[in-house]
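Data availability excerpt. The first of two example chains:
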Amino acid sequence: MAVRNGKKSFYEEAMETFHRAADLIQMNPRVRMELEEPDFEHIFYVTVETRDRLVPLETDELKPFRDLPPSDVKAADALEPLADGKYVLHRRALLKADITIRQGVINIPGKGFFRIEKGGPRKFKAYRIQHNQVRGPYKGGIRYHKECSLDLFKTLAADMTWKTAISEVPFGGAKGGIRIDPFAYSKEEMEHVTLRYVYKLKNLMGPFLDIPAPDVGTNGEIMAYMMRQFTDGEREHHKLRGVVTGKDVRIGGSEGRVKATGQGVVYCIEEWARERKLELKGARVLIQGFGNVGSATAEILSALGAKIVAVNDVNGTIQRDAGLDVAALVHHVHQNPQNLRRTVAGFPGGTAISKDDFWGIDADILVPAALGEEIDGPVAERLKVKLVAEGANGPTTREGDRVLGARGIEVIPDIICNAGGVTVSYYEWLQNQRLEHWSEAEVNGRLEQAIKKNYAIIRDIARNRPQRTPLYDSRPYCVGQTVDVRTAAMILALKRIEAHYLIEGFSQ
C-alpha cells in the first residue's frame, strides 16, 4: 500500500478499523481475504473535444490593446462564464456578431480584454472500483474532482460495502469518477465527459450489476446523462432506469433523494440527543462543507430549531453567533448564478473568518460534510463540541479518532451517519423496478426506521448490551466486550457480509 510522507495511505488507515473488527468477530480467514482488496479496479482514460476559451489578459499585457474596438457579441448565451474567470466561447458567438480581433485578443464590453485560447482534445484519468458484490450489485457514487486517485476510490468503494450492509440494503460497494475540475469546464463539456465515461463502462454497469449515483462534483443532471447513454438504443429502456440513482424525480428519481444523506445525518443526531435527553432546539451547530449533504443537514436541523453558527467550505468560512439564515445561505450558494464556485464566501448574512478559527468555535455539534481527512489530531485537539456527526466519507483520521476519544467527544461514524443516501437510492431502485413512485412521507418514514434501527444496534454493540426489542435484535452482533462506536459499526457490517459467504459457500 502507498505511503504518503512516511504516513499510512488513506486506504491503509481506513482498513485498520476493518482488521480490528475482523479480529473481534474472529472472521473466517478466507472471507477476510475476499474483503481486504476490491474485486476489480478499473482504470482508464476518457477524451473529449473542448471549446475555445477567452482568457483574461493580465494588467501588464493590456497596453498594446487599449485602443482595440469593442466587439458586440449579440447571442446572450454565447459566452459561458467559468469559475476561474475564463469564458467558454461557443460557436454561436459569431451569429450576427460584430467582432474585432487583434493578435488573438478581443475586447468584450463589460467583461474586459481576453486572449482567445484554442480548445481541442483533452484526456482525463477515470476510475471505477468494484469492491464487493456478495450481498448484491455494486453500488456507489461517481466523483468529479481534481484530486481523485486509486487509493481514494478503493477506500470509498470499501466504505460502500460496509455502508450497504449496515443499512441492510441488498447491494455491494463501488466508487468511481474522473480526475477533473468540473468548475473549469462548460456544461456541454461535462456532458460529453460523462457520456464518454459511460461509453467506456457500459459493459461493467447495469441495474443488477453496478449502479452509480451522485457524489462530490456530480448531481442529478450528470445521472440523467449517464442513464441516457446507457439506455440509448435499448428496446425496453424503461426497464433500465435503475442503472443509476439520484435522478431527477421527473425521470425516475425518488422523492426525498436529494436531501436523503442529510436527512440520515439528522436522524442519527436526533437519536444521539434523545438518549442524552438533550434538546436540538437552540443547539449550536458547525457545518463543514456546504454541498448537497451539508446544506440539506443545515436546512433540516434549522427547521428543528438548531442554530447553524458557522459554515466552512473550500473557498471560505462564515460565522454568525446568533445563527445564520440557512434559507438565504442556500440561495446564495446553490441558486445564485453569479456564485460560480458555489461557495459560502461573500454571503452578506455572516462574518468572514478563517478556517483555523472555525475549528475553535464553541458549539454542541460538528457536522463534517466535505472531503476526507479534515479532522486530524491537531484539529481534534481544538474542537469545542460534544458530538462529531460524520456527513462526509472518512472525515476523521485515525489520529483524530484517538484524540476525540481521549477528550470524550462522541462520534457518529460515517458508515451509519451518511447512509441515508444509499438507503434512499435503494428505494429509488425499487421504484424503478416496480415502475412506482412513492411519496416523500413514505420514503422518509422508511428511511427513519432503517437509520434509527441500525444505529441502535451499533450502540448496543459498542456498549456490549445484547437485547431484543420490537424493532431489532442486537444479540447476534455483540462481541462480549465494549468497543468504540466506529468499530461497532464495522462489526455489524462484517457480520452481515460474512454470513453470505459462510451460508452460500465459495464458487469454484
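And the second chain:
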Amino acid sequence: MTASPTAKTVITTDGAPAPAHTFSQGVAKGGLLQISGQGPMDPATNEYIAAGDVKAQTARTLANVKAILEAGGSSVEDVLMFRVYLTKREDFAAMNEAYGEFVEANVPSGALPSRTTVFVDLPHEVMLVEIDALAVTG
C-alpha cells in the first residue's frame, strides 16, 4: 500500500504480530513509513520465541519489521533508520551479528541504514530486543 502524501495511512499485516495496545503496526504519511517497535513474537502463534537467545529473537524481530515494511509498500532497502532496544549490554555482539546478516541479505545496494542502539527495560521479561524503523515509500 502506497500512502497519500497528505493522508495518514495505518499499515497492518498478518505477517507480524497484531499490536497488543493502542498503536498501529505502522503509519505512513508524506512518503515516510514509521514501523512501531517490534519484538520477538511469532505472528502465527502470538507467542514470544527463543527465551534467552538474543540472536534468534533479533532475527524474528527483524522479520516482523520487514513484513510491516512490505505491507506499507516499502522494503528494508528503503529504511533510513533502525532503532534497536536491548535489555543487556552483553547481548550487543549477538544482536549485531543477526542484524548484520539481515541487512546484508535485504539491502542489495549496500547503502546501509542508520542505526541507534540503546539499553532499556522492555515490556515483557522474555523480550531481549525490540526494533523500530523509519523508511521512505514509493
